[in-house]
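Severity: low
Component: inverse-folding endpoint
Summary: output formatting inconsistent between runs
Steps to reproduce: submit the following structure tokens with default settings.
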């Protein structure tokens, strides 16, 4: 079982905030012949680098390294951010949701979107008391 999503917040490279927000992820598997799938998700944790999600429908599978775009609305702003699936874990209690980690590719969005997302996520981290530490202090 992949335990990447159970790492303690203090030991994470990129601190995460907890959140419960709906979204939609569009997944394009490496097999380009397969059509893209749009899946309902709940965002459970978020950082400036990516998200931890739970699929609303826990059935089926997702491939690590698949391309994905997350579409969500928070703080009165809609974000559509591409990335890739970096981990997939089965439900902790079947038939629960499938858990998925997505690393964002923020270089693929406009600078205005990057800046708005950074302001929002850093504000959320601050409101939750999650402190960013310089890399040499980890």
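Observed output (run 2 of 3):
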């Amino acid at each position: 079982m992949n335990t990447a999503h159970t790492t303690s917040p203090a030991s994470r490279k990129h601190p995460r905030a907890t959140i419960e927000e709906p979204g939609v992820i569009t997944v394009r598997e490496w097999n380009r012949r397969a059509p893209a799938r749009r899946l309902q998700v709940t965002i459970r944790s978020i950082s400036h680098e990516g998200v931890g999600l739970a699929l609303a429908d826990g059935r089926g599978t997702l491939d690590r390294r698949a391309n994905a775009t997350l579409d969500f609305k928070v703080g009165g702003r809609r974000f559509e951010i591409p990335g890739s699936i970096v981990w997939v874990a089965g439900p902790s209690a079947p038939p629960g949701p499938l858990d998925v980690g997505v690393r964002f590719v923020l270089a693929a969005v406009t600078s205005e979107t990057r800046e708005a997302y950074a302001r929002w996520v850093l504000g959320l981290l601050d409101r939750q008391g999650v402190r960013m530490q310089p890399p040499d202090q980890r």
